Amino acid sequence: MQRIISNQAPDAIGPYIHATQFNNLIFTSGQIGLDPKTNKVVEGISNQSKQVMDNLASILETADSDLDHVLKATVYLSNMNNFQTFNKIYQNYFNDSYPARTAIEISKLPMDALIEIEMVAEIK
């Protein structure tokens, strides 16, 4: 097992790391829309969705993987009314080879974020 910390992703806001590698699999911690430069949540569901995906892409790159090697994504939304807006952004990060995915509405996310995503990917 190897612990992965990306210099390109925002600092963890709790006692966890960005990801863990086990054999050829990468398990990311949930990421919210934190700007890595300010460690503050960006505004709005569109910006947060983009920031989350950019942060996850950075973490996967550090782990010798990328979004094309994602096997499963779990998406947590604070309001399911944001689902379609999120989907429009999410689809742009994949080359028509979408991973399996679950989307769940929950009552609250850290730092009042609107979205959080965790992923399982394979190493390239």
How does this structure look, described?
By secondary structure, this protein is of the alpha+beta class. It has one domain (2-122): RutC-like (60s Ribosomal Protein L30, Chain: A). The protein contains 2 helices and 7 strands. The longest helix is centred in the middle third of the chain and has 18 residues, at 45-62. The model has no long low-confidence stretch (mean pLDDT 97). Belongs to the RutC family. This is RidA family protein.
Looking at the overall shape, the CATH architecture is 2-Layer Sandwich
Count of alpha/pi helices: 2
**CATH topology term:** 60s Ribosomal Protein L30, Chain: A
Arithmetic mean pLDDT: 97
Q: In sequence order, what are the helices and strands, one letter per element?
A: EEEEHEHEE
Main beta-sheet strand count, sense and barrel state: 7 strands, mixed
Approximate helicity band: 10-25%
Sheet-strand content, in percent, reads 25-35%
Shape: globular
Given helix and strand content, the structural type is alpha+beta
Number of strands: 7
Low-confidence residue ranges: none
The CATH class is Alpha Beta
What is the rounded distance between the termini? Answer: 17 Å
Number of domains: 1
Rg over CA atoms, rounded to whole Å, is: 13 Å
The CATH superfamily appears as RutC-like
